[in-house]
Each structure stands twice: as structure tokens, then as C-alpha cells.
Amino acid sequence: MFLALMLLLAMEILTGSGTGPPNVAGYTPVLSKELDFQVDDYTTCFVGRVVVYQNPDDLNEFIRVYYRQVAICSERAKQKSSSESGSRDSNLSNLNYFRKQESEAIGRVQQSTDAFAYIQWQTVRDSRTGQGIQDGFFKSWLLDQNGSWTIASGYNLNTSPFSEPSKSYPKKRIIVGIKFDLAGAVHIVRIDQDDILSLVKEITNDKK
Amino acid sequence: MTKSRMLISAIIVSVMFSGGCALRGNKKPLIFVDQANNIPADIPSQFPDRYYFLIDKERKEFEKLLTDEDRQVFVDKFWAERDTDPMTPENEYKEKIDERIEDITNERFFGTLGTTGILFRSNGGFRGNMARVYLLHGEPDAMDMLEGRRFVDLMLWLYFNPENSNILYAFLFYQKGGLGGSFYLFPQDIYKLDPCGAVNEITESKDRDYFSGLGQACPAEVEQVYQELQMTSGKGGILDGYVFAWALFNFSQDSTLLQGSVLDPPKPASEIAKDSKISVTGEATGLTGIAGTDYILASCEKCNSFIPAELRLGKEFTLLIRRGDIDWKVVGDQAEVELKVKVTLENTSRQTPLIFENKVLFKDQKNLTVSSPQEQIVIVLLTTDEVTKIPAGTYRVSVYVKNATSGLMTKKYNAWQKEFEK
Predict the structure, then answer these.
(1) What is the DSSP code string of B70-90?
(2) Chain A residues lying within 8 Å of B404, measured CB to CB
(3) ipTM reported for the complex surpasses 0.95
(4) A146 touches B at CB < 8 Å
(5) Report field, pTM of the whole predicted structure over 0.95
């Protein structure tokens, strides 16, 4: 009984308006990476960006923000064999050309993003190892599909791959996105499966 | 004819000849950075002489240029097209080629194990076979030399395929003129189907009566040379005679690859990238028209990529959306939105999921989208008729909605996953 009460206290959950996420303006971005997933060896889909901010006034405080964007998929160059291209370096070179095109497209779509999840935590210095470790303070925010924020103290966001039946082979499932959930609230960032199919079509036409 | 007349005639001919050359715009003498290897300096007018792997089209284009300014434009474009990493400010390809030229100047292989004493300058210099292979393909992954009593000196450069470690290129050089002669590339392509002819070609005392392609039996002496070749070890102890013997009539473990093709001027990296078909899909097309007149974009703070809405699953499947949370296309007095809708119903007893894919067009009054952005509208995703047709059961329902309004296509979206009991 006591334990359950403690747990409830530790995992305070709030939903609705007026419980918005923290403002990271003025915070220092310390880590930034794409929110992406692989569809197959050649296809990667980009659904957003994850940025970790550090509070410049309290260097032990961090906030990780998940941003969503209009989803895009990119088909990496299906490498020609070295014999076809006549150079051992051409695959690497292809990849570089592809990355340029890919990063330009990501840059364009990331001009319009929406923050949909936040995790705030603090660190303390571990006297034994000298490294920063979480001190137990932990707070998460998730924007649900209706556009309201769910807040949970002590809860972390769960993420899982989001799949649906493949359009080409309905008995097979295909990963189309990432599902975030927090204390019952859900936010799914995903792609349109037709965008992957259009890649398949392009490749098929190319081979004809 | 007297001696003086002959001299005058010679002078006249010489003047005519030199004048003719001048009229034809004869090239200035080349300026070399390495006289011993005949390596031209890196100046625009000498570009095709230094970087002689231009493709034919480029060479012709260069020849038409009259000023150094125009040549420099050409040079910049040439390198930009070959840049292997356009993401960086450096041109990695040019740097690599210039490093290789520097290596040739510095006689890179003179002190290398297996090829000790080998000089580019003694083997045709910058335009020789050795330099050409080095310039195009760089340092081999393995190299060695083979000396024998009955065959000329051989030198083998191997390049491995990074994808499968097979031999990708085997450049075999042979001392064509015998002892003290220069190393030339051995024409493996010619001898692909004539191993005996290949061995005969490298034999010290060739069998002059053997002719390739006449179906003759291979002379015994030639067979013996082949045996000796196989038994000999490389000078550097890196490659043995078996590899040299194989390389006499094989250029690559990839049988489709020919020596001639990999010595052709390499295709620019940008061209190869274009051929490889790379694509990025899903991006929204740019907005056309005037905001407020042709379209009205969502006014909510978090609607840059998102359509916040409540999904209701019942006799109908509907979405409740605030007017101000969605992008509208303006058509006269009306505002309209077209949603691409995908509803997937899965349950454990059905193997095949039920999938509904629709385009739902919703029309509203334009002035309401501006005056009442907080008011909710109801968009029907699945009608009562459609829901009635769904067999009874418990379903996991996934709904995906994307703004696909023609002429707008902002591609903002939302997705839900819910349980549904029918």
C-alpha cells in the first residue's frame, strides 16, 4: 500500500492544457541527430530530429526534444559494381553525392518542424567514476494526437517501431514509423507507404 | 647546287615551316615541374597535358578555348564534376590526383619492397604505362617482381575489390625489350583465350613459329617457361609465380572486366552518381499562389507538420479538427481540404487486414476558416455504410491522414492506433 502510494507520487501524470513543455530558448544544443528508421538496406526514412539541450545556468540540467517533420524517404544509391563503374572508389563517391542530396532535402523539410516530446533530467557527478549520472529527477512530455500535452514525472517515453501490412505483400508487415507513448498518450511519426513504393517503382523502371 | 644555295633553301624551308606553325597557333613549349618524368606544371594552358585523362568531349571543348580565363572556368568545372565528396569544401579527387603526381615525381616505388629500384622515369615517365596506371588507380594493394632465366622480368600490381576481396585489377608489366628495357603493360585482353601465346610473348627467346589463333599445339619450350614461371617466387616474397602465371591471361577475377576499359578516362563522379539513381521522396511541393487569397495555412503553433485532431471510431469513423489547425485551399468563397486517408483494421482471427484508402474532400466557407479558427469541424473518414460492412470482431485500427489537397500538398499528417469493437 505504502509502495503503491510512493509509486503514484513518483509518477505524477498530468494531461490537458496549461501543462505545456519547458521552454528551451537560450539552452545550448549539445547533441542533434535525425529521427529516422531503416526500411531496408538502401532505404532510410526521416521523420524528425532529436536535439539534447543543456541549461547554460545549470549545467546539470538537460532536455531532450523530439521534433517531427513532413516525412521523407531516401533511397541510397544502389551501388554499381566496381567493374561497371570502372573505379574502386565510385561507391563511396556515390554515397557522398547521395548524402548531399539527402541532407539538402532534410534541411528543407526541417525548416518546418513541431516539437512533440520532451524529456527533462538532471545529472550529478558520480564520486566513484567521476562521470555524470542521472540524479533521479525525470520528467517527460508527449503531444498526443489531439494536440494536448501529457506530462509524467518519473516516466520515460516508450518508443517502438510502427508497422502496417505491406501494400505489395499484404501478409508481410513493413515498418512505416516510430510510435511514442507516455502514460497512455500516443504520438506516431510515420511515412506514407506510397512514398516507399514510389522508390520501388523508380528502381523497377530504371531496370527496364 | 652550291653549298650557299642549299643553305638558303634550308633557311627558307625552315622559316616557312615555323611560320606555318605559328599561323596554326602552334602550342608553346611545355613547362615541366619534373623534367626527368616530363610532368607538366599545373597551369591552365597545360591542363590536358598534365591531367591527360580528360574524356574526348572535354578535350575537344578545351581545344576551342583561347584565353586562360576561359580555361580556368573549364578547369574549375572539370574538378567540380569529379569531386568525390561534394559535402566538403576540398576537392578530394583533385587532391588525390595531385598526390599521385607528386608520388611519381618522388619515384614512389624506388625503395618499395618487391619493386626496389623501379623508376617511373626509366619506364616512359609521366606518359608511360606505369605512370598512367598509378595516376588512375593509385598505389596497388600488392605488388612484386618476378625474374627468371627463360622469361623477361615481370612486375605485377594487384588491386583488390573492397566488396569481396577478389582481384579486381591485375596490371602485369613486362620488360618488353628484354634486360634493361622499359616495363610495358602486358596486353592480357589479347591473350585471354591464348595462354600459350601469352607465355610465348614473355619468353626470352620467343618461338617465332608459333602464331596465336592458328590452333597450333603449344611448343614444349613455351610449356617449360610456364612451369618455371609458376615455380618462381616474387623478389619481395609478396606474390608467387602462380599469381603471375594467372595474370598472364587474366586481368580480373571479374571476367567481364577488361584491362582496356579501366585505363579509359574515368567518368566524372557526378555522372556516375546520376546513373546510380538516387532519390528522396515524400517532400512537400512548394506552395503556389498568395497566402490568404489562394490558400490559408494552419494558424496553430504546432501545425508545421502536424494535423492535431481527435479520431472517433463508432458508427462512422470521424475526425474532429479545429478549422485553424489545417491548411486550406481557397476556391472562390469556399475553402477546401482534401485528405488522403488510410484506415487499416487488423484482428487476430482474420489473416488479411481490411484496408480502406480514400481521398476525402471537405468544403467549408472561407470566411469561417478565418473568423472561427477554434471551431471544430467533423470530417467523415469512413461512412456508416462502410463501417456496417466491417465484420464483427475486435480490431486494432490504424488511421493515417495526410493533407493532399491538390495545388497545396503540404503533406502535413497525423496517425492514430486504437482498439475498435464491432
Answers:
(1) HHHHHHHHHHHHH-S-TTSSS
(2) none
(3) no
(4) yes
(5) no
